[in-house]
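HUMAN: Now follow token order:
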Amino acid sequence: MIYFIGGKKQREFRYFEILEKIRKENAGISESFFDVDLKESEKFLEKININSIFANQELVVLKRAEKLKNIEEILKYIANLEIINKEIIIDYDREDGKFGAKLKKLLDEMNKNKSMKVFLFLKDTEEEIREYVKEELKINGKDVAILLEMIGKNPFKVRSEVAKVKIFLNGEKFDIEKIKKVVSVEKEYQIYEMTRNILLSNPEDVMRYLEQKKEYMGILYSLYSELEAMYKISSLKLKGINFSKNYNTFKIQFEEIKELFKSNNRIPNSYVIFKKIELEQNYTNKNLKNLVFRCWETEKDIKMGKIEMETGVEMLIMEICSLFRKK
């Protein structure tokens, strides 16, 4: 069988899935990997051209196929070969998700006539990753969202961390607090945790973190994003929207307002916004509006050299904490 896996980063999940499936179904299979970037395309073609009915099953992989100048001709050539005892994977990275009309038409035809199994990932989506984590760890959507926030969404890392969690749990029930001790937490999640501490008026750990990691601008941008979302929630409440404290009910409510929370053309996971409701209730709408402005003002003053980065961010943190539950 010939597999063509192309498109955005998420394609790597299908790539590893197929790789794992082939290895599982063909124990001890011989494996050969070729990289177009290393000018190994000719060696790849030679390898798949060698056929013998007495040969053992082989796995042959071509990486970075997007570097091929004549990809359409090569795909036609491969599809017309009489391939025996070989599983072939062609990996085609395309982060913009755009395929030329000629290539897309050819792939559609090959998939339709079953000369090649084609998997294309043309849009940003986390569904493949979320489903994998959910199935492997037998956890609900809420826990999946929290775990992915912690470990990131790189397909290779997700698979590695999920395997680590399964070994750690050893059949026990999933507990996010226990899991924090064994997974490799992304820097972004550490910043998220510190930001949450600030918004709950617990700045001590944050100051220690900043002293060690110097992530002042990371904290500033995170505060900006959190406070902006909290201000939107607060403003919607003033307009009469009553958000449910039950997550499943909130998910339905979120569908009506999700466009308001879109950032960089991406809509956040509903649970991420749900978690901000408990933070928002500790601040008045007026104070949230002022704090969003203060984030912008602090960033501007730092970039213009009017204030030192450390001083500006620390003053902002103290200001936020001083307004906690202040009506």
